[in-house]
Structures are given as structure tokens and as C-alpha cells.
Write a structure and sequence with these properties.
With 446 residues, the protein is an alpha/beta fold. It contains ten helices and 21 strands. The protein has two domains: 288 residues, no CATH class; 52 residues, no CATH class. Helix 2 packs antiparallel against helix 7.
Length: 446
């Protein structure tokens, strides 16, 4: 095991607002190649021409951006150098130690702070690098896959902003037949208040490869995070991905993620939404090759006035594919959740087998859950079903547990934990399950 202590390129100390000059200065400070600057500038021009989401947009009708003003954020954070593990905050050290991993990377604000990597991974041809380094060291791979195969810059207003100003990021490349048995762990702590962050995850697997990647997102007090996740999954390869979002409850969080699956590819995506003031997440799985298998699992637990919105799309383009979605959420206080999901089956995608289920456990009468599942079927030999539920905790269950010595709070916590267990039971990586169990215990206990 070796620790990489590579000093990143310095980022400009200050910028004045969001503008093309900001984009140019950001790229110049990182000594980026000309192609990346042109990519950023093209994305910025798209951002400028696109309208902000409004209540007239179906995707945003139940999630208003009331109180959001991009001018309230500093566009970028100041960068700093790498450190040894012992110099990281206690919080970050605990996050690293919470899960067994093959390699770890820690970002704070816009810079890589710490990285540890098993030499055996390099011997197998596996690349696990911060995206800025990958732009310089693996330009052909990055240019081929970065926002070209899965998420395009012009997909929405926030992806265009992200493409223009992306700062931190992870590039994972697993060659054919290579297997990474332990997870690759990425931690982002957005420590500066009132700053915009733009974290990018790009995972590419070749035929027959296998990998697990975990993104752990923290901080962002009074700030914004506009992140993108791209999973490009080769034929017969297996990818396990978890996005654990636990931002400060004052943060605005916008996530766009898409997985593109080849023939006989296998994906399991676990989405955990704990934090933020408001989260709007677009999560797509795109089955492009015959025999693909995708599972999209989610848990969320908004409290206070949190607003958590997941919008999913299960796209079936090829025949004999399977997709399954299970999102379970518990809601307290005056929080609100929105789930909108569509199973989309293209002509010719016969023998599609697709499921979609969203369950909501309402812990207070003032909480609200909206669930809108849907189907768009253009093939005639398919099996597609969807379901949505919203219910309060049964008093009978609470009474049963209280009769055995538990307090009401303890009884409710146990019921919520059991509700989330239906998702945990489908997570195939033991170290990821253990991490999820601990974060659920902290959340429910809090």
C-alpha cells in the first residue's frame, strides 16, 4: 500500500461571480489542455442560453427553487494541498476507517487532500485517480468518456453548469476481466461555507470487469453542489455503486446520474439521501445491450423542512433485459419527499422485465410524500409493473413493541430500521452494508 502525495495545481485565490472569465481562469489555474478549456466554454454557452427550471416544467412542478439564487454562492472554493492521513480531521479519518476498501480518496472543497492505493490494482491495469490528474495522464480515455456516453452537458441547466465548472472528481477505469473485490472509496467534504461545488464521478468498465465504488458526500453549509455521476458499463461486467449524500441541511443539492449498460452487464446502484435543504436527483439506467440487469435501490429520511426529490428513468432499448427499482423513505416533522419514476420500453425491446416500487413511511402528520410512478411501453411482449405506497406507522405495531418495554421513540426507530432493511437486504457488498447500517443507526438515533 502506498500513499500518493501529489501537490495539485493551485486554483485562483478568488473569482468574481459566475461568468465566462471565471471558467477561463478556473481552467488556466489547473493548466488544463486546450480541449478541456473548449469543452468548458461550450458548456458555459449552453448554460447561459438555457432557462432556469420553473413550475411549468413537469420535472420541477413539485420542487420549487424558492429562495435559490446562484448569485448567493461563490462560484469556486480555494484549493489546498495533500496531507497525510493523520493530518485529516477526525471526522474524515472516521469516514475512511468505517469501511474496508481497496483504495480511498479524500477531497476537501476543490482539491484532493489524501489518497491511498493498493499497488496490485495498478498491476491489473486499474485506474483510480482524481479526475484532474486523469485529464493530464490519461487524456485519450477521459476525452472519450467524459460527458460523452452517459450524461451530456446540455441535459439540463445544472449539468451545463457542472460541465463548465467541475472541480473535484474521480476517474475509475477497470480493464477487461479485472476484478476489484473491495470497494473504491471516495469522500468529498465541502468545508467552505457558501460555495458552489461540482463533483464528478466517471466509472468505465471493459468486458468482464467488476468493481464497487462508494461516493460519500459531506458538508456544503449554505452552499450548493451540482454533481454528475457517469457509469459506462461494458459487456458482461459488474458494477456496484453507492452515492451516500449527507450534506448540511442548509445545502442545495442537484445530482444528475446515468448508467449505460452493455450486453449482459450487471448494475446495482444504491442511492442514500440524508442531508441537504433541497435535493433534486435525476437517476437513469439505460439498458442498451441484450440481457442487461439493473437494480436501483434508494433510501431517504428527510426531517425538519428538508425537501428530497428523486426522478428516475429505467430505459429499455434492447430485448431480454431486467430492471428493478425499490426506493423506501421515512419522513418526519414538516419534511417532504417527491418520487417520480418512469419505465420506458422502446420498440423492439421484447421480453423486458421491469419493476418499480416506492414506499413512504410517514412519521408525522405534517410530513408529505408525493409518488408518481409511470410506464411508457412501446413493445407488446413485456412484463412491467409499478407501485407506490404512503402510510403512517401502525399504532398496533408501536403498542406491541412498547408492551415489551420499549419507549415510543425506541419503537418508532425499530420500525423505521426494519423499513429500510428491505433495501439493505439487497445490497450485495458486505462492507457497504455495514457502513449503511451504521449511518442509518446514527440518522435514526439523531
Amino acid at each position: 500500500m502506498s500513499v500518493l502525495v501529489k501537490e495539485p495545481e493551485a486554483i485562483m485565490q478568488s473569482v468574481q461571480g459566475f461568468s465566462e472569465d471565471t471558467v477561463r481562469a478556473h481552467s488556466a489555474a489547473r493548466n488544463e489542455p486546450a480541449w478541456m478549456l473548449e469543452f468548458r466554454l461550450d458548456a458555459w454557452r449552453q448554460f447561459e442560453t438555457m432557462p432556469w427550471p420553473s413550475a411549468n416544467d413537469e420535472a420541477w412542478r413539485r420542487t420549487r427553487l424558492t429562495g435559490f439564487d446562484i448569485a448567493n454562492f461563490k462560484p469556486l472554493a480555494v484549493s489546498s494541498g495533500t496531507v497525510e492521513k493523520a493530518e485529516l480531521s477526525r471526522l474524515l479519518q472516521e469516514e475512511i476507517n468505517e469501511m474496508d476498501s481497496a483504495a480511498s480518496m479524500v477531497f476537501e472543497d476543490s482539491s484532493l487532500r489524501y489518497s491511498v492505493f493498493h499497488a496490485k490494482l495498478s498491476e491489473c491495469g486499474v485506474i483510480f485517480a482524481d479526475l484532474q490528474s486523469a485529464v493530464r495522464e490519461h487524456p485519450d480515455l477521459v476525452q472519450k468518456y467524459f460527458m460523452t456516453k452517459a450524461v451530456k452537458p446540455g441535459l439540463n441547466k445544472f449539468t451545463a453548469l457542472h460541465a463548465a465548472l467541475w472541480d473535484t472528481g474521480t476517474f475509475v477505469y477497470v480493464p477487461a476481466k479485472a476484478r476489484v473485490t473491495l470497494p473504491l472509496q471516495v469522500i468529498l467534504n465541502q468545508v467552505s461555507d457558501g460555495v458552489g461545488g461540482y463533483h464528478h464521478t466517471l466509472v468505465v468498465t471493459e468486458e468482464g470487469a467488476e468493481v464497487t465504488v462508494v461516493d460519500d458526500l459531506l458538508g456544503a453549509k449554505d452552499g450548493m453542489q451540482a454533481s454528475v455521476v457517469e457509469l459506462v458499463i461494458g459487456n458482461s461486467s459488474v458494477v456496484r455503486y453507492m452515492n451516500l449524500q449527507d450534506f448540511d441541511h442548509s445545502a442545495w443539492n442537484f445530482l444528475t446520474g446515468r448508467a449505460v449498460l452493455g450486453r449482459d452487464a450487471d448494475l446495482r446502484w444504491i442511492q442514500v439521501s440524508w442531508g441537504s435543504r433541497l435535493t433534486k436527483a435525476f437517476l437513469d439506467v439505460d439498458l442498451q445491450g441484450t440481457g442487461g440487469h439493473a437494480e436501483l435501490l434508494g433510501i431517504y429520511f428527510p426531517i425538519g423542512h428538508q425537501h428530497i426529490d428523486h426522478q428516475t428513468l429505467q430505459i429499455h432499448r434492447a430485448p431480454h433485459c431486467f430492471s428493478d427499482l425499490l426506493f423506501n423513505g421515512a419522513l418526519k416533522d414538516k419534511s417532504r419527499s417527491v418520487y417520480m419514476g418512469v419505465i420506458q420500453v422502446f420498440p423492439g425491446a421484447q421480453k423486458t422485465d421491469a419493476y418499480q416500487r416506492n414506499g413512504n413511511l410517514i412519521l408525522d402528520a405534517t410530513a408529505r410524500a408525493d409518488s408518481i410512478p409511470g410506464l411508457e411501453i412501446q413493445a407488446d411482449d413485456v412484463r412491467c409493473t409499478h407501485a407506490a405506497t404512503a402510510a403512517q406507522v401502525e399504532e398496533e405495531y408501536v403498542f406491541y413493541l412498547m408492551a415489551r418495554g420499549l419507549s415510543r421513540a425506541q419503537a418508532e426507530r425499530m420500525i423505521v430500521q426494519g423499513f429500510f432493511q428491505a433495501v439493505l437486504d439487497r445490497v450485495p457488498v458486505e462492507s457497504v452494508v455495514h457502513k449503511l447500517e451504521r449511518v442509518i443507526e446514527r440518522k435514526i438515533g439523531g
